């Protein structure tokens, strides 16, 4: 392989002479982006305690890569297999949360969404400049290659997605099922942890936490209103109002940690709590009293968790009608930049119960059931009996803001 090194792992030629735990099924976790990794690390605990299973990880090496992903994956402590080696081995199960590189992989592929839903929020794919045809995550072009259906199992979040799949790629329906949303389930399980998360962020019981949530691209909250965090800090009547920022991992990947911190340096000096992209955003949403966001999944999950939500600015016309992001946009007040910002929380609070009901319906059709459903399907693909006991979604870890 042109001099590229291979890892001596628990698989491949000569593995029986190397392993300590013999006879394991091998599971490959494919992480092309940090967002995909965040979702797949929700699935990993459903398998990794089983002595019959060995999980390994890989970061695809194509013509282009996302900055920081390799370091993120290695920091999790798993065995990382070089991409050129991963695509030469046949795995018992392959876990993916992205359509990229599916055709290069060997083994039974379980495909899950890396965000809220599989249908996509934007009408046109970002993968092709100037795309003119609306696309979703359930299109035949994404799920098949040269007539071959790629996923052995396709996890969907809602019954509506299954209905859409029947129209967009009917041959995939026998391999699809409605599992629900494990991210939503983990946030729901985390709600009783709210006081602990607030304590981890340094938020006193009498404090109010306002969080700015931004996806990536120029249509995002951070792209359109980059000074929003600083303005909130400047307007607060006392230090009893705290401000946090949660930015999509691709903001960090495209611009770099140093530049992101540079852009927010003035706000950081005035007390901004900047949440790192790897982990902490879900706990911060649970801890928040108000989230100001955009059409991204993070804002959507905040609304589903019951937090009052406002839009930082008017949302783009490219949002796909009927998508979860469209549901959020149509039911969420937009900040008026010509008025003081903090009093506008009143409108967000008034609409919160109705918004939560509407958003929950488009996020999951199986609330609380994703962990059990996903574990059952993974063990079926591995041809193993499930462990005793019920699988449950665990609360998310405490948030740790970056040092100012």
Q: Which structural class is indicated by helix and strand composition?
A: alpha/beta
The Cα radius of gyration reads: 21 Å
Specify the overall morphology: globular
- Please work out how many helical segments DSSP would assign: 17
- Sheet of most strands: 6 strands, parallel
Question: Which percent range fits the helix content?
Answer: 25-40%
Q: Secondary-structure element order, as H and E?
A: EHEHHEEHEEEHEHHEHHEHHHEHEHEHHH
Subunit organisation of the chains:
single chain
**How far from one another are the termini?**
44 Å
What is the average per-residue confidence, as pLDDT, rounded to a whole number?
A: 93
Q: Strand content of the residues, in percent?
A: 5-15%
Strand order of the largest sheet: 2-1-3-4-7-8
**Number of E-type strands:** 13
Query: In terms of per-residue confidence, which ranges show pLDDT below 50 for 5 or more consecutive residues?
Result: 128-132
């Amino acid at each position: 392989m042109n001099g590229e090194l291979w890892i001596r792992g628990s698989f491949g030629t000569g593995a029986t002479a190397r392993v300590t735990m013999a006879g394991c099924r091998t599971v490959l976790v494919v992480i092309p982006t940090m967002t995909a990794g965040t979702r797949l690390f929700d699935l990993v605990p459903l398998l990794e305690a089983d002595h019959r299973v060995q999980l390994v990880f890989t970061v695809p090496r194509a013509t282009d890569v996302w900055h920081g992903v390799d370091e993120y994956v290695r920091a999790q402590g798993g065995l990382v297999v070089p991409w050129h080696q991963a695509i030469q081995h046949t795995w018992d199960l392959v876990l993916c949360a992205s359509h990229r590189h599916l055709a290069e992989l060997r083994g039974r592929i379980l495909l899950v969404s890396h965000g809220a839903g599989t249908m996509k929020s934007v009408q046109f794919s970002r993968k092709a400049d100037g795309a003119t045809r609306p696309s979703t995550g359930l299109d035949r072009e994404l799920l098949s290659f040269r007539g071959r259906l790629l996923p052995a199992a396709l996890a969907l979040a809602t019954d509506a997605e299954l209905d859409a799949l029947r129209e967009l790629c009917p041959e995939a329906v026998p391999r699809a099922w409605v599992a629900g949303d494990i991210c939503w389930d983990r946030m729901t399980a985390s709600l009783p942890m709210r006081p602990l998360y607030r304590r981890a962020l340094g938020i006193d019981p009498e404090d109010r936490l306002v969080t700015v949530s931004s996806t990536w691209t120029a249509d995002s909250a951070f792209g359109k209103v980059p000074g929003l965090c600083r303005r909130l800090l400047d307007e607060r009547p006392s230090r009893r109002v705290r401000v946090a920022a949660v930015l999509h991992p691709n903001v960090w990947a495209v611009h770099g940690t140093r530049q992101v911190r540079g852009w927010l340096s003035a706000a950081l000096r005035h007390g901004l709590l900047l949440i790192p992209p790897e982990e902490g955003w879900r706990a911060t949403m649970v801890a928040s009293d108000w989230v100001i966001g955009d059409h991204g999944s993070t804002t959507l999950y905040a609304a589903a968790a019951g937090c009052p939500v406002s839009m930082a600015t008017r949302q783009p016309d490219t949002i796909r009608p009927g998508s979860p992001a469209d549901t959020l946009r149509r039911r969420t007040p937009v900040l008026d930049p010509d008025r003081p910002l903090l009093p506008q929380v009143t409108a967000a609070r008034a609409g919160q119960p109705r918004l939560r009901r509407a958003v929950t319906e488009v996020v999951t059709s199986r609330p609380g059931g994703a962990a059990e459903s996903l574990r059952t399907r993974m063990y079926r693909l591995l041809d193993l009996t499930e462990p005793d006991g019920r699988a449950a979604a665990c609360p998310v870890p405490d948030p740790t803001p970056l040092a100012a």
